[in-house]
């Protein structure tokens, strides 16, 4: 057993893995939702200065090379190198985990430069991407942090979304590898935060209420569709036989809650065959609203709703802490 903890893109956390397990984990990297692994020692290495971050990590896209980085406390001690094979990566990881003398020897490590710390452009890939200025970096970090706090998407999905956010005229100033650096750092910070969370959070209570509603003939969907228009158009297709109503919150509703606001829930009666979405019976819609409120209240949440079927149900106050998706 190695005295390390391994964090993967999917949110999987594995402690005290064997050399064989680490080898298999590194070799599998590159697929969708499974691009990176971050390794931390269970105990600081002898002589390690207190404070800062100490880890080694790797990123791989498809069957391409591995981008390997290690950090010794601060950004000034953050180095990277590209490796071609899993065996080479594992050998370095094992030597690092065992604190072997000269573990980093034999590789052309280069300092990884962070614009947030130095105000300089970050070079990525063979041709070099457009450098990140501080304003661009700050905006990317804000977006990545918000999507991570939502708690529904994998690190890979968030990386793509952050890079695409800046897409214009056929290109983006934020490459996928550069976005990946931002997301991996914030993802690790979120995983560390989760260690101090209570066993059951408000987000868990929302999930429990939605599970109960799904079991009582209400089509209940969390983080459903990109907007309200699409959600109302698609919710009917989600209904199981016998479902009389629905409730959902869509992407922007999730972001609002993750950003400290209330969680807004849309609900109603399923429309009759051939009718427009969202045109179900008003009295049934009110009844569905009452079912939703009852389920949320039973789960331990505070709900605000005046009984008007044209008004959203508000879950507030709300401390949205949803754990990152696991494998």
Task: Give me some keywords for this one.
alpha+beta; five-stranded mixed beta sheet; 36% helix; 327 residues; 3 domains; seven-stranded antiparallel beta sheet
Characterise this structure.
The structure is a single chain. The chain is of the alpha+beta class and 327 residues long. The chain has three domains: 1-112, no CATH class; 121-196, no CATH class; 202-315. It has helices at 19-28, 86-97, 115-118, 134-150, 155-165, 176-194, 202-214, 228-234, 251-258, 282-298, and strands spanning 4-8, 13-15, 36-41, 53-60, 66-73, 78-83, 110-111, 218-221, 245-248, 263-269, 303-304, 313-315. The strands form two sheets. The protein has a seven-stranded antiparallel sheet with strand order 2-1-3-4-5-6-7, with helices on one face. A five-stranded mixed sheet has the order 8-9-10-12-11. The radius of gyration is 23 Å and the shape is elongated. The two termini are 22 Å apart.
Number of helices: 10
Q: Numbering strands along the chain, what is their spatial order in the largest sheet?
A: 2-1-3-4-5-6-7
- Tally the beta strands: 12
Order of helices and strands: EEHEEEEHEHHHHHEHEHEHEE
**Poorly predicted ranges:** 116-131
Main sheet?
7 strands, antiparallel
N/C terminus separation: 22 Å
Structural class: alpha+beta
The helix fraction, in percent, is: 25-40%
Total count of domains: 3
Shape: elongated
In what range is the share of β-strand residues?
Answer: 15-25%
The overall average pLDDT, rounded, is 86
C-alpha Rg (nearest Å): 23 Å
């Amino acid at each position: 057993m190695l005295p390390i903890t391994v964090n993967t893109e999917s949110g999987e956390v594995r402690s005290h893995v064997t050399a064989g397990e680490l080898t298999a984990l590194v070799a599998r990297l590159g697929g969708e939702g499974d691009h990176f692994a971050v390794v931390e020692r269970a105990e600081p290495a002898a002589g390690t200065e207190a404070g800062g971050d100490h880890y080694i990590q790797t990123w791989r896209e498809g069957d391409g090379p591995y981008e390997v980085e290690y950090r010794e406390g601060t950004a000034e001690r953050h180095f990277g190198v590209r490796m071609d094979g899993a065996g080479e990566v594992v050998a370095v990881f094992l030597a690092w985990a065992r604190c072997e003398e000269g573990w980093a020897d034999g590789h052309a490590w280069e300092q990884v430069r962070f614009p947030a710390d130095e105000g300089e452009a970050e070079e990525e890939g063979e041709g070099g991407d457009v450098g990140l200025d501080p304003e661009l970096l700050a905006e990317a970090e804000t977006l990545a942090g918000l999507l991570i706090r939502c708690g529904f998407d994998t690190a890979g999905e968030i990386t793509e979304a952050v890079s695409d956010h800046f897409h214009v005229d056929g290109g983006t100033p934020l490459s996928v590898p550069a976005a990946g650096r931002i997301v991996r750092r914030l993802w690790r910070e979120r995983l560390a935060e989760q260690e101090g969370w209570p066993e059951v959070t408000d987000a868990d209570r929302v999930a429990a209420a939605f599970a109960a509603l799904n079991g009582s003939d209400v089509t209940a969907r969390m983080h459903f569709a990109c907007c309200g228009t699409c959600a109302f158009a698609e919710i009917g297709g989600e209904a199981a036989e016998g479902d009389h109503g629905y409730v959902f919150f869509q992407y922007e509703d999730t972001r609002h809650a993750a950003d400290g606001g209330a969680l807004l829930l849309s609900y109603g009666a399923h429309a009759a065959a051939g009718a427009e979405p969202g045109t179900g019976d008003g009295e049934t819609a009110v009844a569905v609203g009452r079912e939703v409120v009852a389920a949320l209240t039973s789960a331990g949440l505070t709900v605000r709703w005046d009984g008007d079927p044209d008004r959203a149900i508000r879950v507030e106050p709300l401390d949205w802490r949803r754990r990152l998706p696991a494998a």
